[in-house]
Amino acid sequence: MKKVLTIAGSDSCGGAGIQADLKTMSALGVYGMSVITAVTCQNTKGVFDVQEINKNIVGSQIRCIFDDIKVDAVKIGMVSNSEIVKTIRELLLDYKAKNIVVDPVIISKSGYFLLKPEAVEELKKLISISHIVTPNIPEAESLTGFKIEDEEHMKKAALEISKMGPKWVLIKGGHRCNDANDILYTGQKFIKIPGKRIETVNTHGTGCTLSSAIASHLAKGIDIEESVKKSKNYITNAIENSFSIGHGVGPLGHFIELYNKANVDYK
Ligand SMILES: Nc1ncnc2c1ncn2[C@@H]1O[C@H](COP(=O)(O)OP(=O)(O)O)[C@@H](O)[C@H]1O
Ligand SMILES: Cc1ncc(COP(=O)(O)O)c(N)n1
After folding, report:
1. Which ligand does the CA of 200 lie closest to?
2. pLDDT digits over 157-175, tens only?
């Protein structure tokens, strides 16, 4: 069985972060492992508190895994502060980690800063060692410094972010209200990943789920364009099967039987 590591924050209500990552990996038939960077106190209404994990403990978790287990892909989400980001980058380089997917988590949907503003420069260095980076529109705006209002701007942002050194860039369009099209940049060309917009408030953890699905597909040896397309199918189905559990933004449905029944092209 392929083994995929998520390095991210814990979400107590189970919709995003480590919990969403592990649910996605299980649904896609890979073995999920975790390095926790922060414990967030969170529910469907928002993030209320955060305890960052000491960088030495983050480093120690990474070493425990790589010293013992062959890791087929790594997904990185919430990384909280620059010391943690630097530790992760240095260790992944030391261990020659492959198939690194960076979801540059900066701000939650509920508006909480999950990354200290001073850590954005360090985050760019982490992006430089990634196979693919998957910013949403607000994150792409933070990374590039310009406003994104249409698909041309998404392409411009992809080009700018590509200069930071990742192999591929996926700009996610979930924050635009008319469609759910994403733009993939291969370093040479743009590929539009079309998506139909689903009207629901329950979109907690969409970015975490998409990046974990990409890492899971890469781990299986599927090429990057196909991994992104399959993961887009997975996220669309998970949003279609999302549901309410509290008073705010509910989680996605990681129900592999519904995914298979939807007859999406899944390997
Ligand atoms: N309401 C929606 N309907 C369909 N797809 C969506 C919807 N919201 C987000 N997506 C898709 O989910 C994926 C994650 O995007 P996004 O929500 O922008 O990420 P993030 O969670 O990082 O903000 C993208 O493929 C995006 O197009
Ligand atoms: C631990 C953690 N990681 C990531 C997110 C982003 O998810 P969303 O954008 O859906 O709030 C989150 N809310 N919590």
Report:
1. 1
2. 999 999 999 999 999 998 8
